[in-house]
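Q: What residues go here?
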């Protein structure tokens, strides 16, 4: 899949879904889909290893 614009297609799909939900579902449905999409994006990034979560305990110096 090298050279294949995966993120561009994912963005296109997400934007299309948001547009359809906004057109037919109203503002509340649009905001719910938007928030869940952002949460899903960050969960996917964490699972791929693209985002490192900070440690819960402070480091001692």
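A:
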């Amino acid at each position: 899949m090298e050279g294949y614009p995966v993120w561009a297609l994912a963005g296109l799909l997400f934007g299309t879904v948001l547009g359809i939900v906004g057109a037919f579902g109203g503002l509340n449905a649009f905001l719910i889909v938007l928030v869940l999409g952002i949460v899903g994006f960050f969960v996917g990034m964490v699972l791929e290893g693209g985002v490192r979560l900070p440690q819960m305990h402070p480091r001692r110096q």
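A: Context that may help when evaluating the design: The chain has one helix and no strands. The helical segments are 6-48.
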